[in-house]
Request: fold
Amino acid sequence: MFWILFCIFLAACLGAGATGGLFPPGPWYRSLTKPWFTPPDWVFPVTWMVLYVCMATAGARVAQLDGNGVAMAFWALQIALNGLWTPVFFGLQNIRVGLFVVLGLWVAVALGMGAMWQIDPVSGLLFAPYLLWVTIASALNAAVWRLNPQAVRAGRPSA
Amino acid sequence: MFWILFCIFLAACLGAGATGGLFPPGPWYRSLTKPWFTPPDWVFPVTWMVLYVCMATAGARVAQLDGNGVAMAFWALQIALNGLWTPVFFGLQNIRVGLFVVLGLWVAVALGMGAMWQIDPVSGLLFAPYLLWVTIASALNAAVWRLNPQAVRAGRPSA
Reply:
């Protein structure tokens, strides 16, 4: 049963992660002034693949336990917000709404981690690198906002 | 506990649904040849709000039950794919990838409905209008593909 659940949760991660291939960082992102702690482009997909495996493992473990309601609800919320950030930031080039989305994601990941910790500490720990990465992503998005006032004003027409 | 869970699942729905406001149907969509069964624009947000309430209710009910693992995993998968379709179709104007996404969503909703039905028939029934709507959306996407070969070839640069 673990592996069936793992595959479904991993498919959810890959669904959200498909936005990374569909809305890649293009000339617009390269033109932005980035903060000193910006990772090189190749780090993002590698890190996400590791995090997806951690997230799917945590989801599959917790899904088998009784009393998993709150943890499962936050798992669903975090994947919905996870898949929203890339189209907003790279697709719409909307740095402002992107920051709200990534901060909402941070809250969902933190609360989900707490809920998982209560019924399966291993799953809680598996979310720790995810929370760390979303913290870095939030700081990156905030710094890009501060360093690129003209890009924040410009935005991009949605159609 | 039901209402806490309902609010978290509804937030996940609204996270996925935010793509509807961020990537609205614009001049490109209006320029497409649509099939005879295309609903008017205002029907979409109204229908989705009703479906979100049904989906969040089903999620909150099933989340409280033991043995909910597969149902919860599919709930997460369907919301990830749900939030992916709008940025692909209206954002990238990619009719082809949009069809693959909505067909994947159809499978996730159907399997999730079956898994919920086994542990809580009411929740399974609450997913029935959702499956019907995704069936219509799939047919609409497929018909738009067939009726607009030039738009299918054109696509839109992602950045």
About this structure: Chain B has a mean pLDDT of 93.
